[in-house]
Specification:
heterodimer, A: 199 residues, alpha+beta, 4 helices, B: 190 residues, five-stranded antiparallel sheet, 49% helix, 16% strand, elongated
Chain lengths: 199, 190
């Protein structure tokens, strides 16, 4: 019996690379918009999603991708920033705050390939993916703060309740985004891999 | 020496059944939970409540964060990060994906409290193979066992209660339900 238990312990101790975050400093977990990002890393350490990110290649500022979206469309890039939203149902996307205030880039992965937990919100991420330009579609663009019936919003969700009376529901409420990306975003990233660090 | 395959099958089926029963139940519960993902969040319980922290300047990030955290009586060590989504808003991130989002000019906002659903979160973790790595192989082995339990179960009994007796009608009924839905999917929705 002891041998079986020991075998299980050994088996599971090395099986979960997505649950072994490297220690991180306070500054890594709280890079705010408009403030300096943590130093660029040649070896990206932390919780690895998918194949992770390649060590080679510079991190491209998200503002640059938005400013030169036609030039970056279809190209594989590495970006870094704070995770400011996570797909609440399937963990199939994260929103990354850019180096310029109010810029947010969505990193979207195929369901099940990588799953980001809600606890990753607020942590720093280095993500690699292919830039996809989002065609402007005023008719389809949601109003600021509104959401689509997608990953971020569900039927029967709780709306903010009056103080002292808590609503209780399943999903995101105000601020939910559609699948393509945050409102007004010019591009999104088709995810290849990511490394998240922070406590 | 003649091998009694029915006896061997019953013995193996019994022991395989013991092995897979816990995980089968876990997967079944998780299956029901994620089947209804459009209607609820199977992993997290999320509660929203309104907050009023009084007006502040969101542009001064450190002061704004300290203001919100102080007014709500939180420990600043719990703050995971912050984000200014618009000129008049600040979001403060807390553990497990919880966050506070407040409008600076009014001080009004929302506190979103996130908690993993105990038991179900872990069941989904296994069922949807979010662990990857070695769990992939264990889940494969479990599926092979389950396949054996399913097929081997057909040959547990002989006679009128066996597969060639009433068993064939029940197997056909079990096949008919998914087959009808597949047929409807391809040819019935025109």
């Amino acid at each position: 019996m002891r041998a079986i238990l020991l075998a299980f312990v050994i088996l599971f101790s090395g099986c979960d690379k997505e649950k072994s975050p490297a220690p991180a400093t306070k500054s890594e977990t709280k890079p705010a918009q408009g403030q300096p990002e943590p130093p660029k890393q040649t070896q990206h350490e932390g919780t690895v999603y998918g194949p992770g990110v390649s060590a080679a290649g510079e991190i491209v500022p998200i503002s640059k991708i938005f400013d030169e979206v036609d030039a970056y469309d279809g190209k594989t890039v590495k970006v870094a920033g704070t995770i400011v939203d996570v797909c609440p149902n399937r963990g199939c996307w994260i929103d990354i705050a850019g180096d310029r205030e109010f810029d947010v880039l969505r990193f979207k992965v195929t369901d099940g390939v990588m799953t980001f937990p809600l606890a990753d919100k607020g942590k720093h991420v280095v993500a690699e993916g292919v830039v996809r330009k989002i065609a402007p579609d005023p008719a389809a663009a949601p109003a600021e703060g509104a959401g689509h019936a997608c990953d971020g919003e569900m039927k029967g969700e709780a709306k903010p309740a009056a103080a002292g009376h808590e609503g209780h529901g399943g999903g995101e409420a105000a601020g939910a985004h559609d699948c393509a990306g945050p409102a007004k975003a010019k591009a999104r990233l088709e995810g290849i891999g990511a490394v998240v660090h922070g406590k | 020496m003649k091998v009694d395959w029915f006896r061997w099958n019953r013995t193996l089926h019994r022991d395989a059944g013991y092995l897979v029963c816990v995980l089968t139940a876990l997967y079944a519960v998780s299956g029901i939970a994620v089947n209804h993902v459009a209607d609820w969040n199977p992993n997290y319980s999320i509660r929203h409540r309104t907050v009023d922290v009084g007006p502040f300047d969101p542009a001064n990030l450190d002061a704004a964060e300290a203001h919100i955290v102080g007014r709500l009586g939180l420990d600043r060590a719990d703050v995971r990060g912050r984000h200014r989504p618009s000129p008049d808003e600040l979001r403060v991130f807390l553990p497990e994906g919880s966050e506070i989002r407040v409008t600076g000019s009014t001080g009004h906002g929302t506190w979103k409290e996130v908690r993993p659903r105990t038991g179900l979160f872990e069941a989904n973790l296994l069922h949807l193979n979010r662990l990857k790595g070695a769990w992939t192989w264990i889940a494969d082995a479990f599926s092979v066992l389950l396949l054996y339990v399913s097929i081997g179960g057909l040959f547990m009994l002989r006679g009128k209660n066996g597969l060639l007796g009433r068993g064939k009608y029940l197997v056909a009924a079990g096949l008919l339900v998914p087959a009808a839905f597949i047929a409807w999917h391809y040819w019935g929705r025109s």
